[in-house]
């Protein structure tokens, strides 16, 4: 028995079982209108015929996955400073956090950078700085991005990248989440 036949048989058996059992809901009167069908028809009439969305090949799509706590290392972000807006990201983070995250990221010490209160914002800002580099070098990757996700604090970077959260909000949350 193929899948569709088996599924249809199951559905008919389920419906028959429901009809045979006692129910508090009365059966609809003969000739009753199916409201769900009316809504589908009304929606289809308003929208008109839909064109099929152009399907992109997997090689034409990108997904960004942002790292989380544990990926921090002294010196991170050094190679990103020459790209537009990266220094602005670090300056905005400094205003929100009240300390120089760029200096800590570049100079350490590693023990301070490893503290959750510091590494979370450091990974968050470095991740978005990396997006700036990617946007500069390969803008098509950013333009063709179909999804973004992140591990731990990387979720905040993914939300900022997607436009669901402001950068300053993500900076503050990355520092406060584990205080």
From TrEMBL:
Signal peptide per UniProt: none
A GO biological-process term: monocarboxylic acid metabolic process
InterPro entries per record: Ac_transferase_dom_sf, Acyl_transferase_dom, Acyl_Trfase/lysoPLipase, Mitochondrial_malonyltrans
Domain Malonyl-CoA:ACP transacylase (MAT): 65-169
Alphabetized GO MF terms: transferase activity
Protein name listed in UniProt: Malonyl-CoA-acyl carrier protein transacylase
Protein species of origin: Catagonus wagneri (Chacoan peccary)
Gene designation per UniProt: MCAT
């Amino acid at each position: 028995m193929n899948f569709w036949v088996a599924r249809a048989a199951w559905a008919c058996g389920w419906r028959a079982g429901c009809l045979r059992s006692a129910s508090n809901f009365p059966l609809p009167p003969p000739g009753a209108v199916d409201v769900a069908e009316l809504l589908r028809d009304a929606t289809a009439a308003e929208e008109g015929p839909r064109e099929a969305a152009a399907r992109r090949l997997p090689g034409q799509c990108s997904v960004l996955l942002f790292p989380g706590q544990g990926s921090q290392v002294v010196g991170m972000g050094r190679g990103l400073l020459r790209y537009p807006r990266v220094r602005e990201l670090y300056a905005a983070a400094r205003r929100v956090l009240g300390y120089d995250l760029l200096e800590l990221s570049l100079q350490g010490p590693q023990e301070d950078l490893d503290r959750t209160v510091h590494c979370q914002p450091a990974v968050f800002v470095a991740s978005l700085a990396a997006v700036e580099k990617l946007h500069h070098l390969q803008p098509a990757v950013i333009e063709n991005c179909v999804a973004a996700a992140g591990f731990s604090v990387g979720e905040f970077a993914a939300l900022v990248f997607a436009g669901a959260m402001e950068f300053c909000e993500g900076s503050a949350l990355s520092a406060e989440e584990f205080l």
